[in-house]
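Hey, quick one: can you model this chain's 3D structure?
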Amino acid sequence: MKDGLAPMEAPPSTIIAYACAADSVSAAGVGKQRNKITTSTVPAITTTQNPYACGNMTYRVGYDLYGGDITSNTVANYTLCCSWCQSYSGCVAFPRLSVQPIRVSFKNAHASKTRIQRLYDDGIDLKQQSVEINALERIRRCTFYKDVDIWTFYKTLCPNVRTLGDVLEEGCVASKDGPCLGHLQSSGSVKSVEWLSYSMTMKANDLCSRPTIDPHSIATFIMTSGTTGDPKIAMVSHDNLLATAKGNIMRLEQANIKQPLTLRHCSFLPMTHIYERFILLGAFLRGTQVVFCPTPEQLVNYFAIVKPTQVSVVPRVLNKVYDMVMAEVNKSKVKRFLVQQALDSEESWFLSRLVFRRVKKLFGGEVQAMITAASPITSDVMHFFRIALDIPIMEGYGQTESAGAGTSTHPVDISYGTVGSPLPTVEIKLIDVPGTNYRSEINQGEVCIRGPNIFKGYYSDETKTREIIDKDGWLHTGDVGEWTNNGALRIIDRTKHIFKLSNGKYIAPERLEDVYIRSRWVAQIFVDGVSSQSTVVAVVIPDEEYVRNNFESTGTFVDVCNKNKLKQIILTDLIRLAKEYQLKPYETVSNIHIHHELFSQANELLTVTLKTRRANARKKFQTIINSLYHEDQMTTNNPM
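Sure thing. Here's the predicted structure for all 640 residues.
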């Protein structure tokens, strides 16, 4: 196939191999010989043997939820296998050692930082097409290709492989240099080899009792983001993940969206985040082909190759694309006029397709649906992509403790500013937030979620678990929301982030930051305030590239940030945005501090999900924030 992603049939001359990437393995019928099967038996690999030059390789991967037992030092217990294993019934034969078929026992086997290789013949750099999976238990690897040098092939792809079962076409002779069958034959431990067909092998495996897992047992441990304190370890079970995946699939099925014959997904979000984990699980359950993009910077190139049919993103990605497109559009009055006409004239589908065809190509040109989550998206960006891509774009809400499930907008919903209605598998209610004006009687309050998706608790922290899950099974999310007239949920802010000003007004800082980050001058922003003052202030990290191009191109960035003129330019732009988005006077920043260093995980101001660690930021900039209010009192630049 042109894109290299269509399922491949194993040709008659194919050699198939099973391998286990684990520190300690044993093969049925091998037993005492396992200590002899080590990397010392592996022949040296030369450049001419590099299988990356082969263009006829493929490797599919899918999750088997009930594939194995969990242990204390595993992060996940999924079994990896390729999609064609369950359906291929050709004439390829497997050798039988004594009376037992070759298969690997994974009991007490563990893998540390195993690199699982995804191979495609579509021109993607194969060396980069891999993903680190720490402490992944029970890994089964399977591939097929036309070369006969099995062990060299595998050692090139996966240096952690400790043993390999040689699986040859019937009639072939096992290699004397092979690490498994050939080595055992030369040592005299195996006297005869009996051939076993593929179908017989599958039946033989069926006779073995398959390990069963309690659906309520732990499937994975995931660290929370830590925006309000130290990260905690959430224990997520198998049924939690299945409930989340099923809820999202049901939401898509309700919309009756026309799906292409082949579903494709390009994964680029971090798998340390629950969002990407349940998106991948849902993709595998629906038979979706998945390609992993190594870095977000390569995303556009990968979209062009993969041509995804569904895209899962965070608003930060859409904001970048939107800013890039609008910067190009604003260079020409004609382009600006046409784009505005296309956005305003929603009925003019021909104009929209004509104007936005290049935007569609940025996403591969075949996207049928998109979902955005993890943080709010502004209405102008959402409106732009709904018109430009002409597809349903859903916005979702959830958190690690709910296995990512909560709400999502319906595909046919074209409103803005909400995260939709509860998914089919969950219940949601709002409760009063003590010390604030958020009360359930006016359809506002803390969001509470209940359902089979709620996690099992925090690892070794029963106290925190009881604080977040009440006796009736409700998860207290810490998010403040409100019900709209049409029954959709709107997220206002985090309960722990809300603070009160001297005028009695409550401030939801993240909502304000979502507005102010729209400034082209701003790369990052931290909005804060104190109870003794009636306005908010902010710490701003400028976008260095934009500042260099539009303000000052010489000198160090520290010197540029210290210039008062730059501060006034950025403050003026933030006040403009406050008016444009109809913020209240007390929500308009009255003063700002220009900081030259980006927030990052290294300086402990960002979480792994790129959210501001507010407690750390407040502590770091406390003196500066107080000085901003002092400057405010000395000037008339106060919007109140």
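One thing worth noting: The first strand starts at residue 15 and ends at 20.
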